[in-house]
Amino acid sequence: MQGVILEFAACCRANAMRVSTAEVLDCLSQLDLMSDWDETIFHTVLCTNFSKSRREQAEFERLYRLFFKEMKTGLMPPAQPAEASDRQDLSETRQEREGLDRVMAQALADDQHGDIDADLAAFMSGNPRLFIQRVRGIHDQESVATQAVKSNLGQLTGRLEIMLAVDRMRKKVARFAGGPDDRVHGAAMAPARLSALAGQRLDRAMAFLNEDPRPDNAGLKTGGDKERFFAGVGDIPFSNLTRDEMARVTEITDRWVKKLKEISTLRFAAARKGRVDIRKTIRRSGRYLGVPVEIVRRNRPPRKGKIVTLCDISGSVWSTARFMLGILYALQSCFARVNSFVFIDRPINMTRVFDAHDVNTAVKKILKDPRINTSARTDYGLTFQTFRDEYLGHLDKKTTLIVMGDGRSNYLNPREPVLELLRERCRRLVWLNPEQERFWGTGDSEMPRYRNYCNEARACGNLNQLIDFIQELIL
């Protein structure tokens, strides 16, 4: 039992799951309490100790199914005593496994092979850790692309190399299966049976490679158009506004900002609305012979949060981002701090520009900033990676990270695991997309991937949707 758990924990770590030594020890001590073998209890104990949250449960189930169900390499903990026929089937399975191990050894010793072939051979022999680690490395690949040439070929090349290794292994198995040395305990293995067993293992390897590991994001919050604040101009996309409509929208947002400021000021300045102050309540009860007639509450207004915005300024996205930035900086007194970053292919900190100038002047300066390469192709993956490397210190558990963009990354590496790290560092991650939800996932849109790593993802392309979001953010 102990060896099984240690091997499974190693596979979980190879798949970037955080499993500590203490959790493995807790798991072993809890499994020792089982009087009889029960797979339901076994699965529950492992899931409780190895998966930290609901988001990791889907990945845990994927590994559990591969390790204990699909591999069937004798690593499953011993069940109740089996009948004679079951023991015979188990003996035959052991013979097949040993025959397959012999074929793998002959295949690897026959000619030159790479690390991928060795990892694949270990997978077929019942040790999937190295293969899992290699596949995980493909999904988490963060090869730094140059400015001249940027593509998503890194992940595709990694997948292709494994597919070619699988094809080579199929040919090697067909060549060595049923050979003269292929005998286990004096009994020759049937070549067809041995080839079929190897084919099943290779099919499982291909299935594991082709699975798209996405976290369980059942708590994803969506929104937009819950309330139509303004008919007509409020439903027109920002990118389609005429000059007169733009002036009308600006007038509406100014009034709305003033209203939200008044509501927020009362909310943060409200006194005697906090938790009960036990010490002062008991002290005041002395007037009434120790009976706490008057309840005294702590005078603590709600804590202000911090905002970090990461705004795409390419194309029609900028028309929405400029309105959102304008409202956020007009409502800056409602937040402890607002930090703004803009990007096309990499993030640039524009917080000082907004602090030193009014919103309209800041917008003009941003568009003329020499650090922004307006001819570059939008690259969300490189933007997230650069933000993580250079500006991760701006995020903490009091920060709301707002990403404003359409998620269209020109078929470049999306690097969505980096977004998972950003989510873990901040209080919540909100994605505002100026495109309507029916267009997400079309063409080069990576929104179906990115939304799995957000706390909230909503369409925000017109005035009504923007006001709906800002109102929820403030109140």
Q: What is the spatial order of strands in the main beta sheet?
A: 5-4-3-6-7-8
CATH topology of the largest domain: Rossmann fold
CATH class categorisation of the largest domain: Alpha Beta
Provide the number of structural domains. 2
Large-scale geometry: flat
Low-confidence stretches: 79-92, 143-148, 180-187
Main beta sheet strand tally, sense and closure: 6 strands, mixed
Mean pLDDT: 81
Helix and strand pattern: HHHHHHHHEEHHHEHEEHHHEHEHEH
Structural key phrases:
two-stranded antiparallel sheet; 475 residues; 2 domains; alpha/beta; six-stranded mixed sheet; Rossmann fold
Fold and architecture overview:
This protein is α/β, with parallel strands linked by helices and about 475 residues long. It has two domains: about 1-210, no CATH class; about 235-270 and about 305-475, Rossmann fold (3-Layer(aba) Sandwich). It is about 50% helix and about 10% strand. It is built from 18 helices and eight strands. It has helices at about 1-15, 20-30, 40-50, 55-70, 85-110, 115-125, 130-140, 155-175, 190-210, 245-270, 280-285, 315-330, 350-355, 360-365, 380-390, 415-425, 445-450, 465-475; strands at about 185, 185-190, 305-310, 335-345, 345-350, 400-405, 430-435, 455-460. The strands form two sheets. A six-stranded mixed beta sheet has the order 5-4-3-6-7-8, sandwiched between helices. Strands 1-2 form a two-stranded antiparallel ribbon. α12 links the parallel β3 (about 305-310) and β4. α1 (about 1-15) runs parallel beside α7 and α8 (about 155-175) runs antiparallel to α9. The longest helix is centred in the N-terminal third of the chain and has 27 residues, at about 85-110. The two termini are about 55 Å apart. Mean pLDDT is about 80; it is low at about 80-90, about 145-150 and about 180-185.
